[in-house]
Amino acid sequence: MKLTRVSLVAIVAAGALALAGCAAGGGSEIQTGTTLTAVENSPFTSANGGTADGNTTYNNNINYMTSSGWNYYDNTPKLVKNTKFGTYTVVSKSPLTIKYTITDGVKWSDGTPVDASDMLLAWAANITKYNDAKGKVNFTSAAAGGGLDLVTAVPKISDSKKSLTLVYSKDFVDWETAFAVGMPAHIVYEEAFPKVTDATKAKDALVKAIQGDDAVALVKLAKVWGSSFNMTSTPTDKKLLVSNGPYVISKLVKDQYITLTANKDYSWGPLPKLSKITVRFIQDPTAQVQALQNGEVSIISGQATADTVAALKGLSGVTTTTTSTSTYEHVDLTFNNGGPFDPATYGGDATKALEVREAFLKTIPRQDIIDKLIKPISDTAKLDDSQTILPGAAGYDESVKANGSADYAKVDIEGAKALLAKAGVTSPSVKFMYGKSNTRRASEFALIQASAKQAGFNVIDAGDDTWGQKLGDGTYDAVLFAWQFTSLAVTGTQTQIQTGGGNNFNGYANKSVDTAFTTLTGEYDASKQQALLAQIDKSLWTDAYGVTIFQFPEVTAFSDKVKNVSDNPLSPSVFWNFFDWTSSTKK
Amino acid sequence: MLTFLSRRLLASLLVLLAASYVVYILSANAGDPLDDLRTTTAKNKEELIQQRIALLHLDVPAPLRYFIWLGGVLKVFIGQFDLGKSRSGQNVTDMLASAVGVTVQLLITATLLAIIFGILIGITTALRQYSGYDYTVTTLSFLFFSLPSFFVAVILKQYVGIGFNNFLQAPGFPWWVILLAALIAGAVWQGILGGNARRRLITAAIAGGATAVVMTYVSLTVWFSNPSLGIAMLAVLGVGVAFLVTTLTSGLANRKSLYTGLTVVAIGLAVYYPFNLISDYLTIWSVIGLAVLTVAVGLLVGYLWGGTDRGVSARTGALTAFLVGFLIVVDRLMRSWNNYATSDIINGRPIGTVGSGTPNLSDVTTNFWIESVDSFTHLLLPTMSLVLISLAAYSRYSRASLLDVLNQDYIRTARAKGLNERTVIMRHAFRNALIPITTIVAFDFGGLVGGAIITEIIFAWSGMGKLFNDALRLVDVNPLMGFFLVTGSVAVLFNLLADLSYTALDPRIRVTV
Prior knowledge:
Chain A is an alpha+beta fold. Chain A has helices at 2-20, 57-65, 116-126, 185-192, 199-211, 215-228, 285-293, 306-313, 350-363, 366-374, 396-402, 413-423, 439-454, 467-470, 494-497, 511-521, 526-542; strands at 35-40, 71-73, 79-81, 86-93, 96-102, 156-157, 163-167, 247-253, 257-262, 276-281, 299-303, 318-333, 429-433, 458-461, 478-484, 546-559, 562-563, 582-583. Chain A is globular and about 80 Å long. The longest helix of chain B is centred in the last third of the chain and has 39 residues, at 368-406. Chain B has 513 residues and is mainly alpha-helical. At the A-B interface, helix 1, strand 10, helix 7 and strand 15 of A face helix 3, helix 5, helix 7, helix 11 and helix 12 of B.
């Protein structure tokens, strides 16, 4: 009797408690949709990748999928226009005048049309005038100080409010990738002035503020543009997720994953095939491989190491490809530090210095480095033979044929010895800097040191982990590091090569090269641009500026359940054709 | 006491302040925060560098920049606690809040399990000192202790994660696996229970036989695809629990205690079906509520059985009730397993190797049991790797500590006056053996907020360890200082707690001013 009483009490009490905590809409039925899961190394932190702190590959890959642009790079790489979104035409070349027009019907995901006010904001946010670290208006744009600074007058908006005309005050050859429609103007204004809730009024007010150079309003707008779109989990204010691309952010879980859902209105560009794309944040490469093997993710992509490639090759049901990216390893020689490659060392005898430089470059085992260090990762790896054009891009093959890089394709110890003898220099010392803790660079250095020794060079190990800080300080004679092409901009290498350029760390100075660059800045014809780049390339090899060695290999692996995945040497790498991706898995 | 506390706290504060200065200077000089910008090919390199300098106040030398940071910390007194911003523009206070949460979630189970199993192993090895079991367990725990965590993690993922998921595609054991498992089980159990050769042989035969039967049953019924305990199994396990708990708390001779345990098991079985009926509507809070209720029922039953030893019976009842309730919950989770594992979002591969949960699971279900299974499948591997590695320390400490106590005179006295072995060990030896372990446990809980760098990174959990690693790698001083502030304060606090708990547990020790 006692027992029954107790258990009865227990049941009633349990029932009461359980009902009190009843979950709304409970039930164990799992429903389905379609999706695919990709991976990034680091979490998403900002829906505005145009800010200095939000400008990371990881943000920009996601934002690439949630926004529309005038053009994008395919994996050739070549710039492809998306005329369904909008068009741009060169109205005049002198002064350079471009008219950008948004196609009718293109709208933000909240239904507001995309128009000239958005473009005007994109201009204002990215010019140095409104990016003054010490002044009041600071949008903190990552693009400030770039080409848009040349558009000095407030751009004109057409009567239809669909077009904006940029007038560049100087020649600017890379205009085609310099301007994008970034953030939604009406959202930025409404966030800055919460009392305004009407999109049209917000747009008009924003246009007025920029045209009138209204500092008070601009300070608020800049603050919103620069920091309000930073997010690490789904924001409560859904306005911040408004975008104009094939996908919109539907869920962001801090440090775990982001999910994009297809924008049902989207019709202005390549149409995506998947209803959802999830990108998980996994830093460790081995963890990525195992997650792929376990079916938790379908696509992984990243800098390749021999270990990850070997692990991936061993998996069944997984396709592995390697791509040569736009980051390229190279050796630069210092021209102005009183070292063995500086004419000043030989009393201003430029020929002597040139011969020593040529001799040293002839000993660099470029092919050997590729065979030993890169081939195990990517068996299709080839020498990068141009200082100015990315392999695969238009003009590369023509330039390589004539630039003289062939002289440095193979190690030529005898040739080097002969050159040294001709210059009358015996066993010169070369202080060689590289990133010491980077095992690949340490191996490259070892190969170079051993090879150069045979020709009589005494290569001194100046490996240093703070090599980035020491660039250009003259403490080294040769340096091994990598540059990255972030686009196919024809003036991409200008700051490295031109006399006094911001990235010209080795003191290279050549008047004809400088002239060629000046001409290039005003040359809008593609074939003439390539000819000029080839000319510069040739001068660099002739002057024994240094050598390019290889492009960093990137590995992409994907499950057999997904199709149409390929990598792109340029950012956004594997994400470039997300609209083609299909998946047979329903999730 | 109060003077002691205030003196200790004041001294700790000063230590923290001085240490923060040193750490700030060291971390600010640990590398170049502009490293990535120096080799950028961006046209506006100069502007980018200026923006970064403005964001992180890099134009102020580090010894002075510290005071900008300290100023933000001191603003706590005007309610505007500010630890600055990270390089990606996030507030450090937000980053810390989330990282501490993740770390505690990841490490609390692992630490608790490591303590429980470590002490269990320590006690059993101490009681069977220098036996085959002692040597085997010692060797194994040291083996795991000496393995690097990244290695353990990768191996676990490969075999326990991916391997088990593959196994689930056709969940059956071939005959030789069953045979091997039976042999191992026999060997292990005879080692633990010991005795003469005949007794060992019988133990081995029973253990091996039972293992073979269970595995064959599991294999034939494809149990792993759709696991559950069922009411019959629950009854067997429940009675086992009742006997075990009674043995440990009061000894089987105390009949009222035993009856209490058995009654509680009967109640548990009686509510089994009703519980499963309502289970779909439960949330985490109602389950916790039910757990409290269960313990209360256990206490009540013990009290009602009464007798002279109400307290002991009530304790038996409460413990048994909790364990039986736990078994019922495990059974309920198992019943969700098939539903979970075969869903489209899991696709037959339930054990996760990365992250804290399946992405977008909440879009398809908010069922408490499914979500719990999901947490379990994602916590399993990191928890295992952490437990395996930290087991050794606890087991060695408790083994040494118990052996120490067992050799004391008062244990001999206890035995001499005729107390049974259970009372000697549970009441006189075990309690005293726990005193030194308490200190270690307190320190470990303090160290817990520091995170587990490698485990976190390999399993893609963004806790304190990863925050520290990222900050150090990018020379991002603000998050680094935030990390230091939290871990430093917690270390100081737990140090104090360890001292206080020591005085509470050991009457011979007094806090002196």
